[in-house]
Amino acid sequence: MRTSLVALILAATPLAAEPELEQTSHFVWERPEDYFGGWSAIEVMDGGASFIAIGDNAQIYEGKFLRAGNRIVGVEPGPVGALVDTDGTPFFQKNIEHIGDSEGLAVLSSGRFAVSFERFPRILIYGETGLPTRVELPREATGLPENGGVEALAVDNEGRFLAIPETAPKGTTGFPLWRQMRAGWETLGHLKRSKGFRPVGADVGPDGKLYVLERAFHLVGFQSRIRTFQPNEFHPDGEILWTSHLRQFDNLEGLSVWRDSESRLRLTMISDDNNLSVQETQIIEFRLTQ
């Protein structure tokens, strides 16, 4: 009798709707300059009106989207800038190979923004004026492979950096999630390795969740995935929010999570074309429905 009653109660209780992503934009961003491309990170601001993009050759673009309803139809023309080092010298003027390999991006509540560099592991914080300030990454980051450093950078609602390398250090169970504290960096846990996916972008959404963009490369092309994690209740598996079809999109590397005028979460991604004519700079946008 009790079993039947429980079954009736469960049957009458509506199940919570699973979150779904509805694609709203697939825009190919093109410009004629030779230096245009390689965009590896993006942050969307002002309710979807403006954005900052960082390229992996230390380029920066602060622009505005042109929209038709929910759809991105263009990017307002503007200059492509150059990131500078702590001495004020643009990276492209330095005769040190890969010193400007900028990969991760996080916008701070103060309006400043932070960039993580992969080949020479560090974070630089940029303001509207003055020279950037340097933040050291965890000591473990210095032992990562040359092309396997921190690609995923985010900042939580308390202003603390979250950083994830593209490569799992030797002897670990997965990709470490580092959080910067006043006394130094702490390891919240390790993202479980799965099906060849590697973390390449991250953002903390308005809901407080950590969204991690992952990429896998197969012989015939790229595949992307987004997992979500609760930093304060970390579980190595996280929750898979979305997985693309193989070759559905290009080399998606940057992720921004924000809230639109209807209070719905949006996820905007940008692809790194590796400065190759056979690839594209794609800006892909989804709306979270549930």
TrEMBL record:
Q: Which InterPro entries match?
A: Phytase-like_dom, UCP031900
- Sequence ranges assigned to domain Phytase-like in this UniProt record: 36-274
SUPFAM superfamilies recorded for this chain?
A: NHL repeat
Query: What is the official name of this protein in its record?
Result: Phytase-like domain-containing protein
Q: Supply the source organism for this entry.
A: Boseongicola aestuarii
